[in-house]
C-alpha cells in the first residue's frame, strides 16, 4: 500500500514539528535574538544544575548559532561573556574552587569559544561562497528533435553548447568520437 505524502502527520508528532518549524523560522528571521534566548536558557540550566555538573560545554550552542549566521559581534561577545557569567556563579554557589583557579579558567574558556566561533564563521562563509558558485540547470528544457537546439525563455532557439555555457559554469571543447571519426575524415 502506498501512502500519500501529503497526509497530515500523526497528532502526536504534529505539535512537535510545528514547534521545530517555529523555532527554525525564529532563528532564520532573528538570529541575534534567537542566540540570546538560547544563551539565557543555557545559562539558566547551567546555574540550576549546580557546580557538580559541568554544563558550560553547552555554551558552544549559542556561540555556534551566531557564528553560523555570520553575526560575529554576537558570537565573539558570547564567547567572552558566557565564561564571565559562569565565573559569577561562584558567589551564590559558595564555590570551593578558588577565585584564582576560576580566573585562570576564564581566558581558557573564552579563547576556546572564540576559536570555535572563528571556525564556524569561516566554515559558514566558505559554504555560502560555494553555494553562490554552484549553478545548475533544472527543469525540462525544450529541445528541437532535429537540430538539438534549445528554446530560450524568449522563444528563440540557441545551440546546445551556447545554452549550457550561458546557464552554467561548463565549457565545451569539440572533437570527434571514435564512431564519427571515419565518417568525417
Outline of the structure:
The protein has 185 residues and is mostly helical.
Would you give an account of this structure?
- The protein is mainly α.
- The protein folds into 2 domains: 14-133, no CATH class; 150-184, no CATH class.
- The chain is built from 8 helices and 2 strands, in the order H-H-H-H-H-H-E-E-H-H.
- It has helices at residues 14-29, 31-49, 60-68, 72-88, 90-93, 99-133, 160-167, 181-184, and strands spanning 150-151, 157-158.
- Strands 1-2 form a two-stranded antiparallel sheet.
- A hairpin with a 5-residue loop joins strand 1 (150-151) and strand 2 (157-158).
Number of helices: 8
Q: How many distinct beta strands? A: 2
| Backbone structural class | mainly alpha
Largest sheet: 2 strands, antiparallel
Poorly predicted residue ranges: 1-11
- What is the mean pLDDT? 80
Beta-strand content estimate: under 5%
Order of secondary-structure elements: HHHHHHEEHH
- Helix content range of the residues, please? 55-70%
Count the domains.
Answer: 2
How do the strands line up in the largest sheet? Answer: 1-2
- Dominant shape: elongated
**What is the radius of gyration computed over CA atoms, rounded to a whole number of angstroms?**
28 Å
- What is the terminal separation in angstroms? 58 Å
